[in-house]
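Hey L., structure's done. Input below.
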Amino acid sequence: VNLNNLECANTGYFTYEFPPIDLQFLKKLKNGEIKKDYFKDKAFYKIIRNHYKQREWNKLLDALGAILTPFSLRLITIVKGDKNTRKTFLMNLLTTHLSSFVSPINLTLLQNNRFGLQHALSARLLVSSEEKGTIIHNVEFIKSLIGGDNMPIDIKFKPQVTLKENPFKMMIFTNDLPVFKNRDEALIDRIQIIYTTNSSERTNEEIELMREATNDRKSFIEFIYWCYWRLKNKGYKIVGKGTEEVYYALVEAESSAYKFFKEKQGILIVEEGAMTKGTELYDKYTKWCAEKKEKAVGRNTFYDNIIAFYGDKGVVKTQKNRTEVWFRNLKLIKA
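Output:
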């Protein structure tokens, strides 16, 4: 227990190491004297800010503000983008400067390791860096992990500990979205996706800034407190969480068909009265997969994806002669 910076009381376990902060800064924060440009000259800010468009930056501020929130927000933040957009650098800042408040995890191992959370007893944030092809099978466990409910945690050679109303949030840093099996509404409502931009190699100047940021714990922690105060003042409302955009992004991560639909909008036209044979669409799709080196889904799954993507636009699946599948109101323009 001591290794996890905890004190034991009659009602449970409590962290006694809170991220250190200057009281004068807290007073200024409370009085509204700390504005959004307060950190613009800090090394960490110069490095990170360049890789987020304004909407994505606002989402990131919410996610960082959620860390110190003392209760569950049912939040899984996925930071997705190309290599060299400083995702790993941000994750390292979190784990280095917030120490016991942040616990690194591996999602694949966590699903199968009963002791996977034993070092997260004092954490508010679980962070993970995931590679392409990550599949999360035990979705119910992930949902319960950040659901704010009592969380039993197994510890090697010690009695099980139950975190009451655990405040865990999760941040996943990745180049490609993980695949969630059993993608239900409760999962979508928990997920926020943040997209990075401006991939670039590190310059000598930036390497120096990285060293400075790694050694400047004070400024980064002040930034996290400011993010928390900002989120609190807007009622803990998380931008971009549980949206239709999240749903389609997760579906696309699982099925290459959605990438096909988006790329081929010029030849796949929603047109009232049009009729297109399902096998013609599937043949076009499989050839596209071969060209793009994408993994093709099965034909029936492809048909289901058509309805999921175009159904709200009036496209209907129908049959002729009991065997042929056709799609009404969808037109394939042949080259």
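The longest strand covers residues 268-277. The longest helix spans residues 217-233.

-- N.
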